[in-house]
Specification:
The protein has 206 residues and is an alpha/beta fold. The protein has nine helices and six strands. It has one domain: Rossmann fold (3-Layer(aba) Sandwich).
């Protein structure tokens, strides 16, 4: 069994460290999208039968890669289109903040997510962060998600300030809910998330 894990905007692959430790002996590929340095080294490829797990923007990125690249798909607070559900002005405000004061903007973002002080100022790649905000603003993968042939598991938090419950409910047919966890369930509840992902993976057809 192989898992590929992709983090969200403003984070690095280190968000998965505790989560991956609870996957109990399976193979794991971490993808790092380059927004913030200091995490585990990421890879760019994985087996075609991998189970893909995306947090937030990481799920959108996985959909961009195409559903044929994975055997099952897990969304942890993820989405198929951000600005179809959230006013584009929110991403635009982050873009302005990243251009003017990257670390102050990210500090406020991490604090709102429940991960205050995630990284130091020198760890940020402002250009890549700006590019990621373009993905949030312009990528619409609803049709790709609709055509997925693989099984899907959606996990979300009822106190998520970035992807609110109403947004998750509009995107996913069935959701496994956490009552808390902010926007960083893999950090706040790694064992709980891993247990649900393993249960999903064990039920997949061989």
């Amino acid at each position: 069994m192989h898992f590929v894990l992709v983090h969200g905007w403003g984070f690095h692959a280190g968000i998965w460290v505790d989560f991956a430790a609870h996957l109990r002996g399976v193979d794991v590929t971490l993808v790092d999208l380059g927004f913030v340095s200091g995490g585990p080294k990421g890879k760019t490829d994985w087996p075609s039968d991998a189970i893909a797990v995306g947090h937030s923007l990481g799920l959108l990125w996985l959909l961009k890669q195409g559903g044929s690249r994975f055997r099952g798909l897990v969304s942890i607070q993820g989405f198929d289109c951000f600005c179809c559900h959230i006013a584009p002005s929110r991403a635009q405000a982050l873009k302005r903040g990243v251009q003017r004061e990257p670390h102050g903007t990210l500090q406020a973002f991490w604090r709102s997510c429940g991960a205050a002080g995630f990284a130091l100022p020198e760890a940020l790649d402002a250009a890549r962060l700006d590019e990621g905000l373009d993905w949030l603003m312009y990528w619409d993968l609803r049709e790709v998600k609709h055509k997925l042939a693989c099984p899907v598991l959606a996990i979300a938090s009822r106190d998520d300030p970035i992807v609110p419950p109403s947004m998750s409910e509009a995107i996913w047919k069935e959701i496994v809910w956490s009552e808390d966890g902010g926007h960083v369930l893999p950090l706040r509840h790694p064992r709980w998330c891993a247990n649900h992902v393993l249960e999903f993976a064990d039920a997949l057809p061989s």
